[in-house]
Amino acid sequence: MAAGEAKANQVCMACHGPQGNSVVPIWPKLAGQQPDYIYKQLTDFKSGARVNEQMSPMAAPLTEDDMHNVAVYYAAQTQTAGTTDPEQAELGKQIFMAGNADTGVPACSGCHGAEGLGLNLAKFPRLAGQHADYLANTLKAFRASERANDPNAMMQGTAARLTDDEITAVAQYLQGLGQ
């Protein structure tokens, strides 16, 4: 754990905050995130399977051990609480829990769990408590195929069916989930 903490403090803390609790809403919270998901994202940034002008150069010098250690460290941290807009959250909860049958949007909870904690073995991320801005930007990137490192394009296909209002509502709901 100490090696992961040291590397996280050296490389990651400026954007992702102390113990992985980013205070900047466009940068994701890593605290409490699924370790296999963090590791996959780091390896994808390093290999070029996921491209981001800030993260790709940060991941490039990391070793396999560094990426594993950072992932384990962040997974063990406690995420700070988020807040939500109650009006937005109601629609977001409905989509998260049941999807939208009219547009073919599956329930987010089917992969990310009813509490939004993700599924480590499948590398499905924790969404509960994540910044709404980051989540909305991520869903829009999947929808536009600007982000494409999801297994079998699952998220691209799902996000393509979401409206901007639905994306905002789901993101708001998730920001306050699990608190």
TrEMBL record:
InterPro entries: Cyt_c-like_dom, Cyt_c-like_dom_sf, Cytochrome_c4-like, Cytochrome_c_Oxidase_Subunit. GO terms for molecular function: electron transfer activity; heme binding; iron ion binding. Heme c 2 binds at residues 108, 111-112, 155. One of its GO terms (cellular component) is periplasmic space. It is found in: Periplasm. Residues 1-78, 87-178 form the Cytochrome c domain. Heme c 1 binds at residues 12, 15-16, 55. The keyword Glycoprotein does not apply. It holds the Pfam family Cytochrom_C. Keywords: Electron transport, Heme, Iron, Metal-binding, Periplasm, Transport. PANTHER family: CBB3-TYPE CYTOCHROME C OXIDASE SUBUNIT FIXP, CYTOCHROME C4. This is Cytochrome c553.
